[in-house]
Specification:
alpha+beta; Pnp Oxidase, Chain A; 6 helices; 7 strands
Length: about 210
C-alpha cells in the first residue's frame, strides 16, 4: 500500500513539473523521426512544426460574392525545404484557378495554421488536437510569387521532393511557386496560453 502511495505521488509530481508524458530527449538532428523540442524553446518549436508538416490551413479574405469580405479557409500543401534543410519559409505550388489564390490576388494578407497532430507525435501520446501539448502554430503575412530564379529552383525542387505528385499536375493550370512573407508568429505548445515568437528568433533557431 505504501509503495502504491509513493508511485501515485511520483506520478502527480511528474504531471505538475514535466507534463504527461515527459518530453522525449530531443537530439537536435532535426529529422522527422525526432521528438519535438522542449516546449520552452518557442522559436525552435515553431521551426520544427513548419519543417515536420506538409499541409496547412490558409485563411484569406474571401472574394466569393456570397461571403465577400469574410474569412475563408482552405487546405494548402507546402514545404519549407528538403528534409534536413528547412528554411522556415513556407513554399506553395499554386494555380490562380484556386479560389483562395483569387482571394490572394485581391488581398495577399493570409493566415497559415498547422497542427502537430499532423505528425506521429501527438497520436503516440494520445493527445487530442486541442490539447495544448499538441502544438499549433499560426503564421501571418503576405503570400507572394517567388520571382528570384535561384530561390524558385530551390523551392520547386523541395516541393517536388516532398510532394512527388505535384510534378504531374496539369501544365494547363499554370501552377507556379509562391511563399509566405511572415510578419507574425503565434504558437501554443503547452499549458499557460500562446506566445508571439519574434521573427529574428524564429529564423535564427538552430536546426
Amino acid at each position: 500500500m505504501n509503495s502504491f502511495i509513493f508511485v501515485a505521488k511520483f506520478c502527480l509530481f511528474s504531471l505538475v513539473t514535466c507534463g504527461i508524458p515527459a518530453q522525449k530527449i530531443y537530439n537536435e538532428r532535426w529529422s522527422l523521426k525526432d521528438s519535438p523540442p522542449p516546449h520552452q524553446e518557442k522559436a525552435k518549436t515553431a521551426r520544427y512544426l513548419v519543417h515536420a508538416t506538409l499541409w496547412a490551413v490558409v485563411a484569406t479574405t474571401s472574394t466569393l460574392k456570397e461571403i465577400a469580405g469574410r474569412p475563408f479557409s482552405n487546405v494548402f500543401s507546402f514545404c519549407d525545404g528538403p528534409i534536413g534543410n528547412g528554411t522556415g519559409i513556407p513554399y506553395f505550388y499554386v494555380t490562380e484557378l484556386d479560389i483562395s489564390m483569387q482571394d490572394v490576388m485581391t488581398n495577399p494578407i493570409v493566415s497559415f495554421t498547422l497542427s502537430e497532430m499532423e505528425t506521429q507525435y501527438c497520436g503516440d501520446q494520445d493527445f487530442d488536437p486541442e490539447d495544448p501539448r499538441c502544438a499549433r502554430l499560426t503564421l501571418s503575412g503576405k503570400m507572394v510569387n517567388v520571382t528570384n530564379s535561384e530561390e524558385r529552383a530551390f523551392a520547386l525542387a523541395s516541393l517536388f521532393k516532398r510532394h512527388p505528385v505535384m510534378k504531374y499536375w496539369p501544365s494547363s493550370h499554370d501552377f507556379h511557386v509562391t511563399k509566405l512573407e511572415i510578419d507574425m508568429i503565434w504558437l501554443l505548445d503547452y499549458f499557460g496560453g500562446g506566445s508571439v515568437v519574434p521573427l529574428e528568433d524564429y529564423f535564427a533557431a538552430n536546426m
